[in-house]
Design goal:
This protein is mostly helical. 81% of the residues lie in helices and 0% in strands.
Length: 166
């Protein structure tokens, strides 16, 4: 069988593929951006609450780390929009898609860290119980399974060696 006969998937040029991948990436980023922006906005208000001054020093440090992580996640997840705007019309879409994809991945890792530290802080303040680290660990394991484990499993299970090389 010829290579053309074995080929699966779309018959598209590099530019067409970049256009399609860009559209898919932007849809994915929209979901993550909304979540990180709501979380970050909420985090910004915490410091102005009367109870903030009564938090233990360790909880204030967790809060500061959480805000910085949230700011970084926001930057990484909004970055692809700025990238697109600044390189639009320069005929570099395939390269822009690769860079935006990397920024999105970093943004999702930072979002995971932000959500982890947010959950840790909230549960520490709400309960003061020793089970908090175990509960946070269980939730993080769930995030890792949903965000990375299952997608990587699906990619490995449903991608053939010839697909990986194209």
């Amino acid at each position: 069988m010829t290579e053309a006969g074995r080929r699966r998937g779309r018959n598209e040029t590099e530019e067409e593929r970049a256009d399609r991948m860009w559209g898919e990436l932007i849809q994915e980023v929209r979901v993550a951006q909304t979540g990180v922006q709501i979380l970050f906005g909420f985090l910004l208000t915490v410091v102005f609450q009367p109870k903030y001054g009564k938090l233990a020093t360790v909880d204030q440090v967790i809060y500061i780390v959480t805000v910085v992580l949230g700011a970084c996640a926001t930057g990484a997840l909004i970055g692809p929009v700025s990238l697109h705007r600044l390189v639009s019309g320069r005929r570099v879409k395939p390269q822009a898609v690769r860079l935006a994809s990397r920024m999105t991945f970093v943004g999702l890792v930072l979002l995971l860290a932000t959500m982890t530290s947010s959950l840790l802080l909230i549960l520490r303040v709400a309960t003061h119980d020793g089970y908090v680290p175990y509960l946070v660990t269980a939730v993080v394991a769930w995030y890792l399974l949903c965000w990375y484990g299952l997608p990587l499993w699906a990619r490995r299970r449903h991608t053939s060696r010839t697909d990986e090389n194209t």
